[in-house]
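fyi for ur records
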Amino acid sequence: YALCLCARSDVLSQWRGYGGGVQGVSISFDQDKLTASLKPEKARLCRVIYANFSTVSKVRKSLRSELDALNYTAKVTSALTPKESEIEARVIVDRLLPQFKHLGFSEEREYRYVVQQRTIRDDVKFRANGNVLVPYIHLPRSSSDDLPIVKVTVGPGKDQILTKESIELFLRKYGYATVKVVLSDVPYRA
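which gave:
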């Protein structure tokens, strides 16, 4: 399971790709607080590595450092059998896979919080996205556990001011009065 975030909050390709053809918004979070809130789920933050999948040098480099660590552990402990080493290597590869994305998406400058499970969790839910059922997990939050939102950017569109005002009202109602709401610098029309 992954929570995908962009390092930049105002990118035209992101508005086009994820705005749904309507007035989009971008929510910026305090990274340290978000990381702390996801700690109970054992979510790990990873920076996405962009590569042309026909060249595997970046994948090999990342794998090499992880496998070197495994080999060192095996030499020090002498406890891993060949089968255990193979299983551990698969675990390492599974951990690395969410970190890679095609070079064509590099403008996203993506980071991901990843939660990986070996078995299907009891709390898995599903939502429809087109003709696919997408599994997801709901992260429980107490009513006093506010999301660490620091800014909301209103994307390019014809009703930016109205959208900004409605978001400010919404945020005030739900206890986020100090969150800045700003307008995108990207023009609605070129």
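The longest helix spans residues 57-77. thats all i got for now
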